[in-house]
Amino acid sequence: MSAKSAIGKEVFTPRDEKMLAAVQVRRRTKKKIPFLATGGQGEYMTYICLSVTNKKPPQLSITKVKQFEGSSSFARRSQWSMDQLRQVNGIDPNRDCPEFDLVFDNASDQWVAGSAGEKCMFVQVLHHTCQRHSGERKPEFVNCQSKLLGGNSILHSAADSVTSAVQKASQALNERGERLGRAEEKTGELMNSAQQFADTAHKLAMKHKS
Hints:
The chain is of the alpha+beta class and 210 residues long. The chain has three helices and eight strands, in the order αβββββββαβα. Helix content is 40%, strand content 27%.
């Protein structure tokens, strides 16, 4: 099971939430955190997760999840509602880059994703979800590539890929069904011929006996 799948199952499912997206990150500028604030657990990996409640009306949240070195479990840390998210800064609107900022009412974090692709997918899912579920107060998306906010959407491309795969699979099944149908028809013809041959042979045998 991947780390992101494990986070969804371990952190969000027990709270009746569904994780929509997650990106592994590290800070662009390290904060000085007292030893006691981390519980003395040393190094850790950080994930920024987007989730929605299963109950209606759906409530969107952004959660910071950590996995400490030597531990297989994940710990929920800070969490913000979507209403607290003010701005998503993609840093560079002209090229793929792993950096992005999240600005909340009471906090601001500067992140570097594990890859530009991870960051792009997270930002796009976040934007798409905000357009669908957020109230009147939607976060501002700045310095983001146009492909992340519409147009040549990664989500649309993914959906097209899935649709194409389904169509190909359906076509293959149909072709297989046609081949099976032809094979069954041929088998039926052979069985009829064999039965006719057997009947003829039986009649000839009876004729010779008499």
